[in-house]
Amino acid sequence: MNTVRLNITLPSAVNDDMNHYAKELNEKKSHIISSALDMYFDYLDIRVAEKRLNDNEPTVSMEDFFKELDSDV
Question: What does pTM read for this prediction?
Answer without folding.
Answer: 0.70
